[in-house]
Structure formats: C-alpha cells, structure tokens
Amino acid sequence: MVSAAAPQPTVRLSDYRPYPFRIPAIDLNVVVGDALVTVTAAFQVEPMDAVASTAMELRGVDLELVSITIDDQPLPQEAYSLTGGGLVIRNPPTQPFKLTTVSRLNPKTNTSLEGLYVSGGMLTTQCEAEGFRRITFHPDRPDVLSRFRVRIEADRQRYPVLLSNGNAISVEPLADDPSRHVAVWEDPFPKPSYLFALVAGDLREIRDHYVTASGRDITLRLHVEAGDEPYTAHAMASLKRSMSWDESVYGLEYDLDEFNTVAVRHFNMGAMENKGLNIFNSKLVLADAESATDGELERIESVVGHEYFHNWSGNRITCRDWFQLSLKEGLTVFRDQCFTADLHSEPLKRIEDAAMLRNTQFREDAGPTAHPVKPDAYQAIDNFYTTTIYEKGAELIRMLRTLLGPERFMQGMRLYFKRHDGEAATTEDFVTAIVEGASSDGQSLGFDPDQFRRWYHQAGTPRVTVSSQWNGEDGRLTLTLEQITAPTPGQPEKLPLVIPVLWAAIRPDGRPGKEHLLVLDQQRQTLVVEGLPPAVQPPVLSLFRNFSAPVTWDAAQSTDDLFALFAGDDDAFARWDAGQQLWKQLMLARAAGTPALALEARMLEALRQLLSQQGENDPAVLATLLAFPGQAELEALQTEADPPALERAACELREHFGSQLASLLQARLDAVASGLEQVWPAGQGERQLTGVIWSWLAAAGDTTARLSSVAAVNGASMTLARSGLRALQPLDCPERDQALKAFHDRWQERPVIFDTWFALEASTPRTDALERVAALLEHPKYDPMAPNSVRAVLGGLVGNPRVFHALDGSGYRFMAEQIIAVDQRNPITASRLAKVFSRWRTYGIERQAAVKQALSVLSDADLSTNTREVVSLMQA
C-alpha cells in the first residue's frame, strides 16, 4: 500500500524538465466492487531517449499495487520499488512498450475529495491538480497528454449511470452477470490526467441538444440526484448560451458528440472542466429565482460558461506545468467576464470585477501569501488556486486588449488557438502569440512585450501617483505619473511595469472630453496635453477609466473633483470609484470616532440629487452608487485595521442616511415596486435597489421596511428574501429572529440553500454568537464532509467582526481549533480557511498578540502540507 506522503519538498519552476516518456494512449478498466475499486491501467509508452535508459517514476497515493507487467510479462520485484510518493520502474525498455498495472483503492475512506471518492450515494472524481495519482499509478503531470479509453463496470442497481470523458461507445449488461453492467467511453483528444473524470451513481438525466455553427447536433446531458430535476433549466440554458457565444465571438466550436455535466454535493471547488464531463458543485448548478438570488443566477451562468470555455482555453491547449496555471485560468476568467458583460451590463460587470479584485486580490498582494501570477516555487499546488492566478491573471489579458485594441487582440487570440492546439503551453507562448498576431500587419505594438511579461513574475499591487500642473491661459495640462510596487515576500526589489492608463479631462460644462491612452512604462513619466479649453480652474481628471489596470492610485483629487465625477462622469467605473472614495472618507472618519460632519452633509445633498426624479434613472446603477466599499479595502486604509469599528461605522451611516432620506428612499421603493416580479435577468436592478433601501430604512427604525424584509423571506424571490435578511441582520430586533426562523423552516430540507442559513446565523452579531457557531457545528443538518457547509459556518464567523475579532482572542482560537479539525479530513479546505489570518500584522497590538497565539496553536498541530505551507508563510 502506498499511503499519503510526508510533507513535500519545494517544487521550483527552474527545475522543470520534460517527462522522459510519452504516453500517447491509456486504457483504463475500472471495476467497482462493494467496498474497493480495482483499476487496471494499460499505458502505451514511448521513451523520449532510445539510447539511455531512464527510471520511470509514477505517482501514487493510497493505492495497493496488485500487479505490474511490461508487454504482458510480470515485472520482477527487483525491477521496481514502491516509495512514499508512488512507483519507480528502474530499467524500463528503451523501445516503445506497454505498461500495465493493477491497483486497488477505497473511495469510501478518501475524505480529501481528491481522486475517486464518495459523495452521497455516488462515486465521483476530482483530479485537478494532483488527484489522478489517487486513482492509478501515473506521472500525474499536465505535460503528459494521452488519449483515454475507459471501461467502467459496476452494479446496475446501485450505479445505473456510468460516465467518463469523451463519447459513449457502449453501455450493456455484463455477459456473465446481468446484475452488473459495463460502459465504455472514448476521448479522441489527448489530455492530461488532471482532466480525467468518472462518475457512477443513481442519477436523473435532463437531456437537451445544441446544433453547432457547422450543423453538428450535440447531445447535452445534465445529471442530478433525484428530486433536483426542477432546478436544472437555468444551468442548461446557460450552457447553450455559452456554446453560442464562443462560436460567435471566438469562432470556437464544441468538438465531441455529447457534453455531460454532473452536480455533486461534496466538492472542494466551484466546478471542474474535465473534457466532455464537467463536474459541478451543486450550489453552482441547482437554481431558479425562488431558490437563488439574481447574483447567484448570474454567477451560475458565468461558471457554466467558464467551464465550457475551458474546452479550448485549458483542455485543447493545456498547461505545460502548474506554474502556468494562469495560462488557462486567467484567460478563461477573462473570457467568462466578457461573456457576462455581453449578455448583461458591461459597465456594471466591470465595476463588480474591480470591487472583487480590490477586496480579495489586493488584500492577498498585501499579505504574507502574496505571490506572482506565475509563481516560481510551491510546496502544495492547491494553495495557488487564488484570486492572483485567476482574477489578476484575467486583468493581465484585459490590459493586453486595452493596449492593442479589440481587433488586434483578437488576431493574437486566433493565432494562439491555432498555433498551440493540442499542446501543453506556457504563459510565454501565450504572450508571444498575442504579440505576433497583433503585429502581423507590421503595426507597432506601442509597448515592450518583454517588460509587459514582468506582470507575470512580479507580485504586489502597483501604486501610481498622479500630479498635475495647469496653465489656464494656454489650456495646457502637464501630468506627472510615478509608479511604485511595495516589496512582497521574496521580492524586495520591483521593476517598472507596463501600465495602461485610460483617462479623460472633464470640460468646464461638466462633460468628459476625449478619452486618451497613456502607456506608463517608466518609474516616472511626464505627459503634456495641449489644446484644452482655457479656464481658471484645472480640469477634473477621470483616471483609470474602465479600471484600465489592476493598480491603486493617488491623484490628490479635491472633494469638489470627486463630487463632480460622482454626479456625472460618463465612464461608469470612474463615476463609481469617485463615490467609493467619498464613502471611504466618511466610513473611516466614523470608525475613528470623529464623523466628518461637513462631508456627510455634502454627501447627503449629493444623494438627494441622485435619488430625485431628475437623478439616476437606472435602478441597478443607483444601487451600485449607494453601495459601501468592502471591508478589506477599508481595513487597508486604516493605520491599525479595526474591523468591528468599521462594521459599527457602516451601521451608523445606514441609520443616518436612512433617516435623512426616508421620503426619497420610499419614493424610489414605490417607483420600482412594479418591476420586482420580472423574471431574471429582467428586474435585477429593481430588486437590488430595493435591498439597499430596505437596509437603510430598517437601520433607521422604519417599521414598514422591517416588516417588508420579514415578509420577503417567504416570497417567491430569493433575491428579496436574502435582501430582507441582510437588512435585518445587523439589528437587534424581533424581526431579525422572525426572518431567520422563517428561512430555517422553509429551506431546511434543501442542503444547497440551507448552507445560506448556516452562514447567516454564524455572521449575525449577538452576545452569544460564538456559542451559537459552536452549536451550528453540531446541527443535524450540518455536513462536516461538505466544504460548502464548512465554509458557510466558519466563513460566516469570519464575516462577524465583533465576534471573530473579539479582543480576548476567543474568535481566533476557535477558528484555529476548527481549522485543525478540518485539516484532518480535507487539507484543501483547511488551508484556504487558514488564510483568514493573513492580515494579522495590520491589526492593533492587542489583536496581533491574540492572532499570534492562534497561529501558534496551528503551528504546533500535525498539519497537512497544504495548511503547513500557509501557516508558515503567515509566521515568517
């Protein structure tokens, strides 16, 4: 038996060497027994070097090796050895040969949710990044591409549905045992082992079809557990929209005869793009307007698109090694963001993505776990499935499009897909293809691609300072921009990056002038703009329009400038960002105990204009402008981060503005009421704005708003139900308990939705909140094996600042103890939870001491490699 190995040594990009053997074809025979699964793996092997014999290393974890043969001849025991990490064949043939291994495994004892494991009554797999080694002995690295043929044998009654990658070749009863049956699947496209998938279970099938642009009829099948069939229509429709969009925008057509999707309750990730057999966390499949919010419906559509788009950006072109992870993930996030923007609102999608980046990725960049988009070393690759790899990686690609323009960028994309189809590629290959495709007409790039590549290798969020000089008589504006990136772990010195700056000057009549692109590629750079309208006052600058680069900036803009932009900039992001800067000033002042009364009065007047009949007409835009900045952004601006004080400030401001603007807010509620029942995607803005107004009015003590919030919990819209719950959650009032109880009673039999109740309960501020969180972990509906449940309860606690950040350290200690418990069964989930301590050095002395004690508790425990790596980084 080969068991889970001891802590792994550091893996370095500089040590990469091609695997010395090709494995062009693999036949798998998977026999599912009552307890154990037997896997016979037959590899066609072609040595890369026919002269020198090289040992063949295969990875394997928790596998029992039954037999091993080469060219059907048993291998002598002295010719191979089992190690802590797998199997080593000492002197394999130097000519092509067939390697066959037979191994056994027990999926019921596999709690890691990697490899082959049990979820409910079904067997399922998760092989990215290194799960295939838990199924059979294999190199298990992404640069080994093989065509797979898979035979699955199982009991017909327990496992009536047998699925794997590619196209179904046959499904028939076993000739000598009719109680069992066999399915054979064949994937004609070479793929790495991390894209292998297998599902066996008693599932219900929802079938549809899609006709491609070339006229091929593709069978679409979505598989769910009994009773979940009514909640699949949205996911199926999203898949068809994704297929159509990829054809129309990229010219990429689906390449198999069928596309299968399976919903799984126990899943570490959101979803997985296995070739032809996508496996989804049930939360991201099962939904309708009654059971999911508008945001969740859009998220599901986006994730369904993301996994489908991987068919080309990830599957047909895969990663050479795991350091190239953003090659597939950053590109596919960019593609799914564009998909959502095209189907809904491009400006609001851009704001949503920018807010997410600021509150997650920027926070990561500023902490001990900061790393480049392309890391150069790791111990556990699972720790690098981060917002840096995904969302910042997507921003790099968006900057290329901004620098090159949409047409030239798409020329580069077409070259990339053509040149590297069927290959395991690198980020260098990607940038080279984009650059060569864009410059195929001889046109200058306008930037240095080698310097642009620094974005992949340099961690941290650049900060740009902008200063200006104004000659009002001549209409001449001189801008001086400087960029600096603060040191990050392992990278004390930073070099200048290529930063696209989209900007415009607001004319005296309040309208923005022409938009300009400035390529900032020096540490300090000056730009002189002539021909602006003469005026005494300098023009207001609209900077980093459309969030043209993942940076922070300081332009020392006056309050007048910010209010001017907030009132009417034609760039939605720049307008929203100006409002965010004002909200930050207000909230930080409140949190410090010194309210900025003059600024609050001015904001009150601006909000009156915004809410008036002559103000903002789009309810979605209005709701976005009224939204407060995220907690992480605000913490980063405090001298000593004080999450409870920021929470208190938000409550005070909602109460203040809710009281002062009550009549205008009520008028807006009345105006949007007729649109609340529209079917998604219609009505999103009306419902979003209603939720914001409820939270302000409820905080101000408005009884009608509180009762409306309670009533929404039993209504037909999950968006309004959750909005009502969020409005009441910070308030110690009877309506809060009524709403939470109503939600509990209504949804306790639907685990996918009931996890929301766990999160709400855990994040509700109460004097006995920590005791309640502990009780939730013993709740009969809590599933400790389901990452969704774990994240709901423990993530909810983290979202409860008064409790998690209690000065006595009780919240920190409780979390550390729970992370240790989770780590024993699921290291991936535990290591991600451990990152909640990553910003501890920004707290005050008392909280720092409390977190250090919690980290010591973690450090002294017997931790997995995944969690140990994270804890060590935070203690460094």
Please summarize what this structure is.
The protein is of the alpha+beta class.
Q: How is the main sheet built?
A: 8 strands, mixed
**Reported CATH architecture of the largest domain:** Alpha Horseshoe
Question: Quick one: CATH class of the largest domain?
Answer: Mainly Alpha
Unreliable sequence segments: 1-5
**Portion in beta strands:** 15-25%
Mean pLDDT: 97
Strand order of the largest sheet: 6-5-9-3-2-12-15-14
Determine the CATH topology of the largest domain: Zincin-like fold
Total count of domains: 4
- CATH homology superfamily of the largest domain: Peptidase M1, alanyl aminopeptidase, C-terminal domain
**Helix- and strand-based class?**
alpha+beta
| Number of distinct beta strands | 31
End-to-end separation: 36 Å
The coarse overall form would be globular
Fraction of helical residues: 40-55%
Determine Rg (CA atoms, Å). 28 Å
> DSSP helix count?
28
Describe this structure in words.
By secondary structure, the chain is an alpha+beta fold. It has four domains: about 1-200, Immunoglobulin-like (Sandwich); about 320-455, Orthogonal Bundle (Neutral Protease, domain 2); about 465-550, Sandwich (Immunoglobulin-like); about 570-875, Zincin-like fold. Helices cover about 40% and strands about 20% of the residues. The protein contains 28 helices and 31 strands. An eight-stranded mixed sheet has the order 6-5-9-3-2-12-15-14, with no helix packed on it. It has a five-stranded mixed sheet with strand order 17-18-19-21-20, covered by helices on one side. Helix 11 (about 570-590) crosses helix 15, helix 13 (about 620-625) packs parallel to helix 17 and helix 15 (about 645-660) crosses helix 17. The longest helix is centred in the middle third of the chain and has 20 residues, at about 345-365. The radius of gyration is 28 Å and the shape is globular. The model is unreliable at about 1-5 (pLDDT under 50).
